Amino acid sequence: APPAAPQETWGSPAPAAPQDAWGTPAAPAPPQQDAGTAAPAAPAPAAPAPAAPVAPAPSAPAVAEETSGGPWDEVDDRTRALATDDVEEDLEATRLSVIPPAPVRRSITLRMDDGAELRSERTVVVGRNPAAGDQEKPFVIKDDTRSVSKTHLRVDGTGDDVLVTDLGSTNGSAIVHPDGTREGLVQDTATILPVGAQVAIGDRVLTVERDQ
């Protein structure tokens, strides 16, 4: 019979392959690339992220052309023109309707030959018992001779000139000029009394003076 195979000297199996010093298996070697195969291209860089939008700087508020603003902002040009015309018409009407200053009131003084006198800013009616109108003032004359009529003479000194009018007296009236000449009055006709002249009514004499 063949002899038995000799055994290991120590009678124990062969030791295993040595491990890494730390007890972990070594990392496998990287696979070798074929010399004729090109390496894959590097990936393209990622597109940059879009920049955040920048808010525009606040601009200064526009200055309004008209400080008044208000209802005119919504009015068209035609309406503005019509409104302007209305204002001009109103102003013109206002100018035309201005009340003129009151006229200066003139006054006269009547003086009879016996010293009786009357000052008035209105028209005066002279006589023994004169019938004066609403805008007239009576000047009652005492006349024992009865040569003066009840309503004898009207004297109007409200204008630039003094006017005298005989009111249909029985004995008439006349202007007596400074030289003594007489000018008879026509009934119901106004006649200018010259400065310095007097009026004869019946047998009496009346002097009229313009007040300053």
From TrEMBL:
<feature type="compositionally biased region" description="Pro residues">
    <location>
        <begin position="42"/>
        <end position="59"/>
    </location>
</feature>
<keyword id="KW-0597">Phosphoprotein</keyword>
<feature type="compositionally biased region" description="Low complexity">
    <location>
        <begin position="20"/>
        <end position="41"/>
    </location>
</feature>
<protein>
    <recommendedName>
        <fullName>FHA domain-containing protein</fullName>
    </recommendedName>
</protein>
<feature type="region of interest" description="Disordered">
    <location>
        <begin position="1"/>
        <end position="86"/>
    </location>
</feature>
<dbReference type="InterPro" id="IPR000253">
    <property type="entry name" value="FHA_dom"/>
</dbReference>
<dbReference type="Pfam" id="PF00498">
    <property type="entry name" value="FHA"/>
</dbReference>
<feature type="domain" description="FHA">
    <location>
        <begin position="124"/>
        <end position="175"/>
    </location>
</feature>
<dbReference type="InterPro" id="IPR008984">
    <property type="entry name" value="SMAD_FHA_dom_sf"/>
</dbReference>
